[in-house]
Structures are given as structure tokens and as C-alpha cells.
Design a protein that fits this description.
The protein is mainly alpha-helical and 332 residues long. It folds into 2 domains: 134 residues, Alpha Horseshoe (Leucine-rich Repeat Variant), CATH 1.25.10; 129 residues, no CATH class. Helix content is 70%, strand content 0%. The protein contains 21 helices and no strands. Helix 11 packs parallel to helix 14 and helix 20 packs antiparallel against helix 21. It is elongated and about 65 Å long. The protein starts with a helix and ends in a 6-residue tail after the last helix. Keywords: Membrane, Transmembrane, Transmembrane helix.
Amino acid sequence: MNKSSVLLVSSVFAVSACTLFYLSKLLRKPHVKKDIQKTAPHSTIGDTYLKTVNEFDKENLSIEFANCICSMVKVSDYDTRQQLIMYLHQASSFCHNFSVIRDSKCLETLLSLLDSSTSMAPACRQNLSILQVTTNLACDQRSLPIIMDYLDDIFSIADTREYSDQACAALQVLANIALTPTGCNLLINDCGRLYKMLGVREPYLLRNLLAVLVNLSCDVNCCDKLLSQNGEDFVRILEYSLSLDVPLLISMKMTTFLNNLYSRIMKDQERYWNESESAVITKTVAISLKENRDLIQSWAQCLLPFSEDSNEFNAHLQKLLSFLTDIKTFNV
């Protein structure tokens, strides 16, 4: 070993010894800090979070707890916020907690965090959790004035061709909104938008979308609006939904939807007679349903053998076939 090598190694050992000396000093510092921490604690999100968790009662959500959650949601990171939203999701399973979630501004705060343009996994999970809470509260008409301000975001998340949990959740929100006359009135001008979304082929999305349309078609005003929409592509959509290429649950949903539409046509024959005789520029859904009744009847009959294991589906098909027979006396 030459002289320079010896000097270099000595320097390394000197630095190492020095490092160990200061490292040992640093390692003793926490013992000093423990004594300092005995003084009055300062408030942090972590402290509040732990206190809040200990007080959580999902069956009896207190306004104090909800207010605390609302405050923390605004300043938390994704992981903490996700846990906080999950508490609200659990509490929203009990209808007597709805007013607390609204009055504490939790619902409004959550909806304001929806991000319909994101593809980031954490943000999509957050959207899903927010929509799950909203789905439960949408059953209560008193929640609708809050939800209505965020319908564009909900529709944007729902309007996709590829499966996503958040898209299904958004459609479930819309389906629950459509359970009441007030909710139907809120969505009546979106009937055309919903029809355009019917081009989706993903089974879960299509089934949830049809659930929205079934609920809307139970309302007279919405049913009339649905029948008056552009029906140029409606028969093509029917052909797919009533085919053997889709799960039977989708065919059953579509059959239920058709029954509601045909029922409305038969109850107001004078109106739809005049419509079919008038010089309409665009062929409506009502006209398409009347003109293509034989074709629809053939599709329904093909499904009959596959409905034997489901009394509900079989009953819907028989009802549809009855409507199609009756409507043949209604000239187009």
C-alpha cells in the first residue's frame, strides 16, 4: 500500500468516526423531545381525526361529528378523505341520518369534489365514494335541490362506453332521483341525453341506464317526453337489448321500459294518432314503436323460451306481446 493510500483510508476512518459521534448525538434527541411534549398539545388534523373516529356511530350520526367530517374533508389528502367519506357512506345507509348529512353541508361539500375529467385512480375512487353517498340521499326529495347543481358532473361521469365503478354509481344516482315526481321533473329535459347514452354495449352500464329510463317512464310527463324524442336509432337499440347476445336482465329491463311506453301510447291514443298522422319532420320514438311493432313482437317471442325460469321476466314479455297485439288495431 503506498503512502497516499494510507492517507486516504485514514481520512475515511476519521470521517466515519466523526459521523458516528454526531449520529449518536442525534439518536439521543428524541429523549429530550419527549419531555417537551408533555406541555399542552397543539391541535392537528391527526388529533381531530382520531377523536372523530372514536366518536363515530353510523346509526346515529351527530351534527357535531358531521360538521367535523365536513371540515376535515376540505383539507385532507386523498387517503384520509377516502376514509372520512366511507364513514358518511356507512351513515347514509340509515335514512334518519340524511338530514344531518345535508344540514352539516357534507353532501354539498362532497359533490363539489366530484371530478368528471380525471382518470387518476385516487380521484376516481373518491368520485365513486361520493356517488355512493349521493345514491342513498337521492332517495329523499329534500336532497334534490343540492344534487341538482351537480347533475352535469354526474352525467359526465355516467356517459362512458367502457365499464367503471364510478359510471355505474352515477347511473344509480340518476335512477334514485327518478323515483319521485320531483326527481323526474328534474331530469325531464335530459331524456334526449339518456337516449344517446343507450348506444353503450357494456352490460352493467346498460342495465343501470335502463333502470333510469324505467323509473322515468313511470312518470306521465317524462313518459311523454321519452316518446317524443328522436326515434331514428331506437329500433336498432331495441334489437340489441332484446337479443340473445345480452344478459337476460338487460332484456327484462328493456321489456319493462317498452311496456311503460306502450301503456302510455294506448292510454292516450288520440294524441298519438294525431302525431302519427301529422307531417312530423323527425320520426319520434312513439312512431317507431308503432311502425315496428311486428319486428318487436318477433324479438319478444324469441325470448319467451328463455324466460321460463323467471316468472317476472315471463310476465313482462307476455304483457309486451299483449300490447303489441292490441296496438295493431291502432293505425299508423
